[in-house]
Amino acid sequence: MSSTTLPDRPGPQAEAEEPGGKMSFFQHLAELRKRLIRSAAAILIGALVGFYVARRVLEFVARPMYTALRTAHMEDKLIYTNPTGYLNMVITLGIYLGIVMALPYVLYQVWLFIAPGLYRHERKAVFGFVTCSFVLFLCGVAFAYYLMLPRLLTFLVTFQGPHSTFSPLISVNEYFDLLLMVLLGVGVIFEMPILIFFLAFFGIVTPGFLWRNFRYAILIITIVAAIITPTPDATTMLVFMAPMILLYAVGIGVAWLVVRRREKPAHEGGVR
């Protein structure tokens, strides 16, 4: 009587060749300590480099605010309200830049720690997941900075009207907080395909369900776009709707791939 192996699980010989599961608990702790020290050192070095270039980067991130002030025919300057305000801003930005610059190396250290405990096909899946998440987040940040933020700031600055007796006095620290909130928020929204992947992986949604409710998804996206759109014109709202609809469509494709991959081994097992 011949024995068969599960379709998505390596056989005993393949499992024996895998490097995972050979370390003791204390060896795992020592390995974790080594990875944490290297990651912290990378962030520290990145923060030093970030502090050195922070003032130039601050001019870059403040550019949308300058443009909005010029559009409103106002003085294009940001202020700080206490003696240490600008220095704190430079230090904070330097730390953020250090984290961003060290992130690839930190993720690599995380990968070196978890990879030995994974099978070969699981390593490929985790690597693809991390890569796609990172790329989608960067796309969301770029979309927010180049398309959403200029329109949002222009609307906020010009909302008072040309003949108002009020004029904005914008702090660089408060502007940076708003910038960070917008960039991170839109970056997280661009992770929609990853969310749909997990929902499909655990069987909560299916491609058919997502497709049948496409019209309701568009309705929800329209409502969300109408709420977050800074200007009342339809063109700007469509600019915000387009990427969200595209991300939803990509999510349907991702769900289809997940379900197809799950059903394929079951079908092959039935044929046998």
Could you outline the blueprint of secondary structure elements for this entry?
Layout (H helix, E strand, L loop, with lengths): L11 H6 L7 H37 L1 H9 L13 H30 L5 H39 L13 H18 L2 H10 L5 H6 L1 H15 L5 H38 L1
Helix pairs in contact: 2-4, 3-5, 5-6, 7-10, 9-10
Structure in words:
The chain is mostly helical. It has two domains: 24-188, no CATH class; 191-266, no CATH class. Helix content is 76%, strand content 0%. The protein contains ten helices and no strands. α2 (25-61) runs antiparallel to α4 and α9 runs antiparallel to α10 (234-271). The two termini are 14 Å apart. Mean pLDDT is 79; it is low at 1-9 and 12-20.
Low-confidence stretches: 1-9, 12-20
The radius of gyration computed from the alpha-carbon positions, rounded to a whole number of angstroms, is: 25 Å
- Biggest sheet, in brief? none
Structural class estimated from helices and strands? mainly alpha
**Which H/E pattern describes the elements?**
HHHHHHHHHH
The coarse overall form would be: flat
Distance between the termini: 14 Å
